[in-house]
Design brief:
Blueprint (H helix, E strand, L loop, with lengths): L5 H22 L5 H49 L12 H10 L1
Helix pairs in contact: 1-2
């Protein structure tokens, strides 16, 4: 798979939003400090887990992107070296080869 899994990300976001909404609803019913602290701990733990998953997905995406960019650079380098001039049975003149290799 390439990049961040959109379905996983959407499900993760929905799960977190649902938890926050449930906590908001229960907030008005809580009367004791201990209950509020428990709710706060629940939301904080969910937030930290949510952010951990997002950072993991982002890190995975960046690693995959770096690999693809390195592959592209290597491919471009091989492509630039593959030009053969007319004199050696190729399809390019010396000026064309020089211009293409300058662009790389």
């Amino acid at each position: 798979s390439s990049g961040i899994n959109a379905e996983y990300g959407a499900a993760l976001g929905k799960k977190f939003k649902k938890l926050v909404a449930e906590c908001e609803k229960s907030l008005t019913k809580l009367e004791k400090t201990a209950q509020l602290q428990s709710l706060q701990a629940k939301v904080t733990a969910a937030y930290e887990e949510h952010m951990k998953q997002i950072k993991l997905e982002l890190s995975t995406f960046r690693n995959k992107m770096e690999i693809k960019l390195n592959d592209l650079r290597e491919s471009n380098q091989h492509f630039g070296l593959a030009f053969k001039p007319f004199a050696k049975g190729g399809n390019f003149g010396p000026d064309e080869i020089e211009n293409i290799q300058k662009e790389d």
